[in-house]
């Protein structure tokens, strides 16, 4: 249901055309970044595309660990942005990567639980689709929410962010953690939607807090 209106599914474009178009964009984008920005940025962009298309997508039919692999591709773009600006990758860049990687677990597992029946029909090995009861789904969400809160505090501990960021991170983390607790103890469609929405709210709040902290901190 979630992907029923996408172009390949509806027949708006063929799978072959999509493959050729995608390959062309990856090659063109990688070359453009290599010559117009810097080699490191192009390597990161190519790596993200490779992991997503060649590793993550086929793995969805083999093992539920695909989410942990796909999250690497999802967390690489900020590294590319950092590399484009500085030409290198500092500890702060890897901290952003780690934060985004961890964030994806409660985000995507809440979505996977909501659409678990669709994944089953499509024979995709998402954890909520292969569990009779969402025991490990809830455990993984809880573990990564805890890791997310801890990771979000590192910029303050390193002295690169101040109290405005800290306050925002605690508020955003508290909202996210509360939604996770509700889902853990009352696993319903409503609580899963709440968790998904909390995940969508989290990153903008963190970015706003970072911006305001740099502006006024």
In short:
By secondary structure, the chain is an all-alpha fold.
Please count the beta strands (DSSP E, at least 2 residues each): 0
Distance between the termini: 46 Å
Percent of sequence in beta strands: under 5%
The tally of helices reads 11
Rg (CA only): 19 Å
H/E element string?
A: HHHHHHHHHHH
At the fold tier of CATH, the topology name of the largest domain is Four Helix Bundle (Hemerythrin (Met), subunit A)
What are the low-pLDDT stretches, counting only 5+ consecutive residues below 50?
none
Percent of residues in helices: over 70%
Total discrete domains? 2
CATH architectural name of the largest domain: Up-down Bundle
**Which structural category fits the helices and strands?**
mainly alpha
Mean pLDDT: 95
- Characterize the largest beta sheet: strand count, sense, and whether it forms a barrel: none
Q: What is the approximate shape?
A: flat
Given this structure, which CATH class of the largest domain is correct? Mainly Alpha
Salient structural properties:
single chain, 217 residues, mainly alpha, Four Helix Bundle (Hemerythrin (Met), subunit A), 2 domains, 11 helices
Strand and helix map with partners:
Elements lengths: L6 H4 L4 H22 L2 H21 L6 H21 L4 H24 L1 H6 L5 H4 L4 H18 L1 H4 L5 H23 L3 H28 L1
Q: How would you characterize this protein structure?
A:
The protein has 217 residues and is mainly α. The protein folds into 2 domains: 1-89; 90-217, Up-down Bundle (Four Helix Bundle (Hemerythrin (Met), subunit A)). It contains 11 helices and no strands. It has helices spanning 7-10, 15-36, 39-59, 66-86, 91-114, 116-121, 127-130, 135-152, 154-157, 163-185, 189-216. 29% of the residues are buried.
